[in-house]
Amino acid sequence: MKILINALSGIGDALMFTPALRILKDRNTDLQVDLLAMFESVKQIFTYNPLINEVFFIDFLHQSKIKSIKEVLSIRRRKYNYSINVYPSNRAEYNLLNFFLCSGKRIGKKYNHSHFFRFEFLNQLKYPEIKDRHNVLQNVDLIKEIVGDISDSNVPPMEIFVPEDKKIEGENWILEKVKDRFPVGIHAGSAILKNHINKRWDVNKYIQLCKVLISNKNAFILLFGTEKDLNEKIKSELKDYSEFASTGDFMDSVSRLMHCKLFVSNDTAFLHTCAALQIPVVGIFGYTNFKELYPWKSPHKIVRLELECSPCFFNSPRPARCKWNGIDEFKCIKQISIDSVYQAINELIN
Predict the structure, then answer these.
(1) What order do you get walking across the sheet with 219-223 strand by strand?
(2) Span 249-280, pLDDT tens digits
(3) Which of 4, 13, 188, 254 holds its CA 20 to 30 A away from the CA of 269?
(4) Sign of the torsion formed by the C-alpha atoms of 199, 110, 95 and 251
């Protein structure tokens, strides 16, 4: 049997499919499971995953439509029995693409916030989206047609595989930079698509938190992410007690990240990468749903405000918006204190 996984969104969403991938292969080792990505970082992650037979990469965002169509039709000629749109993928483009990729059974979700022109009807098997159900479990639901029922309690952790040469490079880099200090990873940024820049905790609070960690925990701060302006601002304050840890190669970041003893992050892909590596992580959440996105089966603490209006963001192309204006706009993230994050850190590492 041949299955195509369409992992067309970002790193975090792709990683949250890995428990379902593990179940697929454990239940039937003869399955051929291929994967399609449109982001280089997702391609890298699954190139090293031994559970995937072949990884396809189509640069939909930067190449011509004609070239993309040719590449899609080339994949379709492989005649997959099933194709699966990784959760969440609540866009018309993903359902149209699934239709053109696979002549077999197409699997997707029936989203709570959708409409006719998202073209969900193009998928023959549509599993209902369940509010407050973790994204990992929403993905596991998608494979039940193939493997049968799975108890939520038996769903494994997420996985990421790092090649040996990258492990050695990462270890050498850490030994040189961190020496005998306590390595703490920070990701102060976030995606900006769909207005997600508002997921970011204040960079000045990150700076103050890092200074406390340096003073009290002998910390060395590793700055992850490609948000150059934020990381440069933090480093200018922390100076020799910090270093930029990300490069243009995502697996470089992973090889360094795996040596962190603690990670502090907004709701971003790095939070889920830490979960896949079993790194203790403190996640700072605003309007996104922590029940659906907490670090899966890994040591963590969630810091958020229990507001009546939060979480308010759901899976759709609609950008994040706040019902409040002025000083109260996105207060769900703005009003989280340094003390509350530091307390969560102490509870976690102790």
Answers:
(1) 242-244, 219-223, 182-187, 262-266, 281-284, 300-303
(2) 999 999 999 999 999 999 999 999 999 999 99
(3) 4
(4) positive
pTM: 0.96
Do the Cβ atoms of 292 and 199 come closer than 8 Å?
no
- As annotated, the residues of the chain forming the CATH 3.40.50.2000 domain(s) are 2-154, 164-349
DSSP-derived 3-state class of residue 244: strand
* Distance separating alpha carbons of residues 166 and 186, to the nearest angstrom: 21
Please state, in angstroms and as integers, the Cα–Cα distance from residue 12 to each residue in 109, 171, 196, 270, following that order: 18, 24, 14, 7
On the question of pLDDT at 316 being above 90, the answer is no
Say how many C-beta atoms besides its own lie within 10 A of residue 36's C-beta. 25
Task: Tell the CATH superfamily of the 2-154 domain.
Answer: Glycogen Phosphorylase B; (3.40.50.2000)
Burial class (CB in 10 A: 0-12, 13-18, 19+), 168: exposed
The domain defined by 164-349 folds into Rossmann fold (3.40.50)
Question: Is residue 347's pLDDT more than 90?
Answer: yes
DSSP for 84-118 reads EEPSP--SHHHHHHHHHH-SSEEEEEE-SS--GGG
Under 8 Å between Cβ of 243 and 219: no
Tens-digit pLDDT profile for residues 171-212: 999 999 999 999 999 999 999 989 999 999 999 999 999 999
Assess whether pLDDT exceeds 90 at residue 317.
no
Q: How is residue 211 written in tokens?
A: 């200074």
Which residue, among 297, 291, 237, 231, has the nearest Cα to 267 in the 3D structure? 291
Which pair of structure tokens corresponds to residue 305?
């405000």
Give the count of beta carbons closer than 10 Å to the beta carbon of residue 154. Answer: 9
**pLDDT (tens digit per residue) in 118-140:** 999 999 999 999 999 999 999 99
Tokens at residue 240, please? 């020799």
Q: Is the peptide bond before 295 cis (omega within 30 degrees of 0)?
A: no
